[in-house]
Amino acid sequence: MEESRADATVTDKQETNSSFPLVTRTRPSFNPNDLYYYGSGKKYLYIFNHYTFQTTKFFNDKQPSMRNGTSIDAIRLPQVFSELGFEVETLNDKTHRQILDKFQAISSKDHTETCYLFFAFLSHGDNIGNIYAADRPYQFKDVLTFLEHGHLTLIAKPKVFFVQACRGGLTDVGRRIEMDSNHRVSYVVPTHADFFIMYSTVQDHKSYRNKYGSFFIQDLCDIVEDYHEFYDLLHLVTLVQNRVAFLPHHARPYQNGPPQQEADARDQIHTN
User: Fold this and answer.
1) Which fold has domain 39-248+257-271?
2) Global pTM value
3) Is residue 151 flagged as an active site residue?
4) Is 166 known to be catalytic?
5) Which residue in 50, 166, 221, 270 is the catalytic one?
6) What is the pLDDT along the chain (272 residues), one digit of tens a residue?
7) Which position among 111, 124, 205, 270 bears the catalytic label?
8) In the chain, what are the domain boundaries?
C-alpha cells in the first residue's frame, strides 16, 4: 500500500499492554552536527602488546609461540598517534589480571576532559572470541564490560578498538572476481552507540604479520599518517581494509630490500 504524505508525517504508536504507556516515535531529522564528536579534549591510546607468553594450564601447559614483529607495531603506533596529540601508554606482556585491573582503572576515572579513547590489542586469538593475555586466554567482551558500566563521563565518548589477533585457523583464499567491502571491519554496539571495533581479520580466520610488523597495524599507521587531515575515521578504515585486502605481502616494502626468494617471504609470515 502506498504511504500517503499524512501517514509519513504522523507519529506511529506501538501497541503495548495496559500496564505500560504507549511509546511514541517521531520521524528522524538530520542534524549535520551529529556527524561530529567534540574533539578538543584529551585523547588516549592504550596499547596491549604481547610478544611472549607463559606456560600455564590455561594454555594446556604449552607456551604459545612468540609474536615476532610485534615490537615494530608497538613502536609505530605511538609514533603515529603521538603526532595526532594522543597520550600513548604501552603495556607489554601483561597478565589477565593486570589487563582487567588496567581497564578497571580507566573506566572508573573521571573522563570529563577526555574526547577519545583508543585501544590496540596485539596478541594471539582464537575462533571463540578469546584474546591471549600473557598467562591465559580471555574474552574480549570482558574488557568492554568495564567501559560499558564505567564512569558516567564515559557516555558518548568514542571508544575505538583495533584488534590484531587471529580469530581461527582458516586462511581466506579469496575469490578472483567478487569483492565484499565489509570483510575486515566489525561494528560492535554492546550497550552504547560510542563503541567502534576493527578486527584484523574475519571470524574463524588467521591474521598475518612478519618481522616488520603486522599487515593490519602497519597499514593502519600508514593510512592514518597520510590521510588523517582529509578523511574521518570511517573513510580511513575503508582505506585500511582495501590496502590489507589487496596489497599482497610480496608487494609490501621491506626495510632491507625485497627478500631474495619468494619462499623466504612466505617463511617470514606468521599468524597471530
Assistant:
1) Rossmann fold (3.40.50)
2) 0.66
3) no
4) yes
5) 166
6) 443 343 333 334 444 444 545 545 555 555 565 555 556 789 999 999 999 999 999 999 999 999 988 999 999 999 999 998 999 999 999 999 999 999 999 999 999 999 989 999 999 988 788 999 999 999 988 998 999 899 999 987 889 898 888 776 555 444 433 333 334 444 443 454 577 787 776 555 566 677 888 888 888 888 898 888 888 888 888 888 777 766 665 455 544 443 332 222 333 334 44
7) 124
8) 39-248+257-271
235 grid coordinates: 573513510
